[in-house]
Amino acid sequence: MKTSTALKKINLEISEFEERLFDHSIVEITDEEGVIIYANKNFCKISKYDADELIGTDHRILKSDEHSPEFFADMWDTIVGGKVWEGEIKNKAKDGSFYWVKTIIIPITDEKGIKNYVAIRNDITKEKEIQERLLRMEDELLKQNVTLLSEVEKKSGALLKSERLATIGTMASRIAHDLKNPLTIIHTYADMLTPEILAKLDPQDREKWFRLQTSVLDMNRIIEDVLDFARTTEIKKKKTSFLSVLRLAMNHVKPSYGIVINLPENDVSIKCDARKMEGVMSNLLNNAVHAVDGQGEVDVEFASDSKNLTIKIKDSGPGISEKDLDKIFEPMYTTKTTGTGLGLVICKSIVEQHGGTISVSNKPTTFTITLPLS
Question: Is the CB of residue 316 less than 8 Å from the CB of residue 327?
Fold first, then answer.
């Protein structure tokens, strides 16, 4: 249907300016009920419908489900009231693609009232895509900003904690060094008591001597823990058998009759600082033996995939109280009467220096270490 013929049928006269406007815009004319009676070539091009397919239908043929019923109700209330409506509409083309148009709908009236509606539209699909992309980018940037702020807070907290620990470590190291020399003298003189001299002591004095020896060993262990905590030596990784690391760690575990320690049969080759990991394993095994308290079992398990080794140390002890569970890796926190609260902190530091993680869970008490294989 040609433009001039269609316009004559609805009794509209247009100027040359209006014809050019129609050529450069998306133009649609409907009757008073909203049934399409004219669609220009641009309307057909963007909607991908032929004019014959559009004429005789209403605008629901292009419905995209983007807009609510209230949106269209407001539009109709405006134009039925004889006012011009302006807005942005998302439509659905014949091939299922979507497009956005900036729309002006003008009611055409005569002496009887509204007889037609003329909709003049401009394609703003690219602008809307850019706008949506910018909104997505803004949303992503906001999320990244929140994440970064959270990371900064964590890093700041970790840095502050690290600085405090460094100060504590420096002070503790100086005190430990100062205590080590007189403690060595006490230990030396206590060892000078020969079996013949000890045999002449009465039972009470011998008991005091044994208690002195035990106290010296406990103090020496505490001092070594403090010095280990203060020292930050570089991790030296090399390929090694982790089962051999575990077996060497067993040499530092205090044996106890009635406690069975089950070691894994499988071995895993891993790149690590063998000496430091030996210290970690001996610390965790001694803790497990202490927790079992004279009767029970300690199980050590290995599991690996292509990237990581997972070590689990379980004990049959009574477990860790919930109030202690969250604090167990904090410096100076201990549930033992003779502990320094530094052993697990040192273990955590060594594991993290290897790029791994350490955690604890209850029922049964299980320390889980994950280490990268390389």
Answer: no
What is the CATH number that goes with domain 126-232? 1.10.287
State what percent of residues in the chain have pLDDT above 70.
80
Cα gap 240→373, rounded to integer Å: 10
pTM: 0.46
Supply angle C-alpha 59, 61, 11, rounded to 5: 40
Q: What was the pLDDT predicted at 154?
A: 75
SS3 content of the chain, % helix, strand, coil (to 5): 50, 25, 25
Return left, alpha or beta for 48; rule: phi > 0 is left, psi -120 to 50 is alpha, else beta: left
Q: Do the beta carbons of residue 366 and residue 319 sit within 8 Å?
A: no
Contact 327, 333 (CB under 8 A): yes
Q: What is the DSSP string of 295-362?
A: SEEEEEEEEE-SSEEEEEEEE-S----HHHHTTTTSTT--SSSS--S-HHHHHHHHHHHTT-EEEEET
Average pLDDT over residues 320-331: 78
Integer CA distances (angstroms), 110 to 6, 118, 327, in order: 18, 14, 83
Q: Residue 17: what pLDDT? A: 47
CB 1 within 8 A of CB 7: no
**Higher model confidence: residue 83 or residue 163?**
83
Centre a 10 Å sphere on the Cβ of residue 163 and count the other Cβ atoms it contains.
Answer: 10
Question: By the 8 A CB rule, do 125 and 102 touch?
Answer: no
Domain ranges of the chain: 3-123, 126-232, 234-372
Burial (CB < 10 A; 0-12, 13-18, 19+), residue 187, is middle
Residues 75 and 105: their CA atoms lie apart, in Å, by 9
CATH code: domain 234-372 is 3.30.565.10
Strands 36-39 and 365-372: unpaired
Match domain 3-123 to its CATH number in 3.40.50.10540, 3.30.450.20, 3.40.50.300, 3.20.20.70: 3.30.450.20
What does the DSSP 8-state code read for residue 294? T
